[in-house]
Amino acid sequence: MRAQFVMSEIGVGLRRNLTMTFAVIVSVALSLALFGGALLMREQVSSMKGYWYDKVNVSIFLCNKNDAESGGSRCSKGAVTPQQMEEIEADLKKMDIVKQVHHETADEAFSHYQEQYGKTPVAGYITPDQMQESFRVKLDDPQKYQVVATAFAGRAGVESVQDQRETLEPLFEMMNGMNMAALAVMALMLLIALMLIVNTVRVSAFSRRRETGIMRLVGASSFYIQMPFIMEAAVAGAIGGVVACGMLLLGRYFLIDHGVALADKIHTVDFLGWDAVITKMPLILVISLLMPALAALVALRKYLKV
Fold first, then answer.
1. How far lies 215's CA from each of 67, 90, 98, 115, 306, in Å?
2. What is the structure's pLDDT at 224?
3. Which domains, and CATH codes, for the chain?
4. What does the alpha-carbon distance between residue 162 and residue 79 come to, in Å, rounded to a whole number?
5. Distance, C-alpha 204 to centroid of its chain
6. Where is each ABC3 transporter permease C-terminal domain found (predicted)?
7. How far is the C-alpha of 95 from the C-alpha of 115, rounded, in Å?
8. 59 near 134, Cβ under 8 Å?
9. Based on CB atoms within 10 Å of each CB, which residue in 26, 51, 167, 300 is the most buried?
10. Dihedral sign for Cα atoms in the order 129, 132, 137, 138
């Protein structure tokens, strides 16, 4: 009988404050959808970093005749000699952080250039002797680029040392910035949701002050009186959590697989699968239950004296 009474009181409370309950559901759904999206974006950025950083190289470009004739300070001692190339390669292979070393000849560099820029007008004026030989170095830890740069920058025969990670950092910084913006909006939406929950509980407690007064007189416990209000907030939050999970599923479906179909348009990115989305759902549902319930409990201590 008590459980039936509590459930009937929850239904009465939700119907009596239908507009505010709807606002709570929407705000909780949006805030938790942003929270889940931010978690997925952070995981996607980490996955992309692992994927791309494993593929990028440190490039040690060697001086050629054109560099030496141009009078540049880096190649003022002339073009790289075969002996210097052998010494550079040997020293690279001695380094513990170096995983693999590939010597790219001028002809290979010219061939790669033609593959990428062969259709541009400038490509017709480039000849193989203008291309630089280089060493493509793969590191065990790509973040230790500076060790290689310090060891070989300014060395005789070396024109420059470049870290290909630098071309990817702006993309990752932009995605991290978007992630922080999503978290900021999420925090604002959560604050709004909490304020709505507190206000809803306050209005509900005020509208049922007569019933709670009678329950006090007949000896009902504080927990028994507060339970319907807490459950109302928890039910509204749970509905919002379910909606948030649905939004994440729809977002993954339309953005990655269908609709925008990023997976078909961007083949160089390993997008997160459905398992990554599904594993975030239990956390979202737990938060959607606990957050409104705790907010209601705090509000009841102030607005419902039992």
1. 92, 87, 75, 82, 10
2. 63
3. 2-52+169-303 (no CATH), 57-163 (3.30.70.3040)
4. 19
5. 39
6. 184-302
7. 32
8. yes
9. 300
10. negative
